[in-house]
Design goal:
Length: 74
């Protein structure tokens, strides 16, 4: 099963906390966005493997833009 992580709001990618191929748990922080001078953690919605990261540090991201794809580790 595949999961798409979407940006919760418009902002800039401040820090990426995972790498493609890494294993993550549900609730793990995948990346941190910066918006309106606040840091917003983006968390995993499920345990799995990071399949693809669609952004890099410094990218401006729109709300609901695909930023990370996860695949189930089952």
């Amino acid at each position: 099963m595949s999961y798409h992580i979407l940006a919760p709001m418009t902002g800039t990618v401040f820090q990426i906390e995972c790498t493609e191929g890494s294993s993550v748990t549900e609730g793990a922080v995948l990346l941190i966005m910066e918006s309106m001078k606040m840091e917003i953690p983006v968390e995993s919605i499920s345990a799995g493997l990071v399949h693809k990261i669609h952004c890099k540090v410094g990218d401006l991201i729109d709300q609901d833009q695909l930023i990370i794809e996860l695949t189930s580790s089952d």
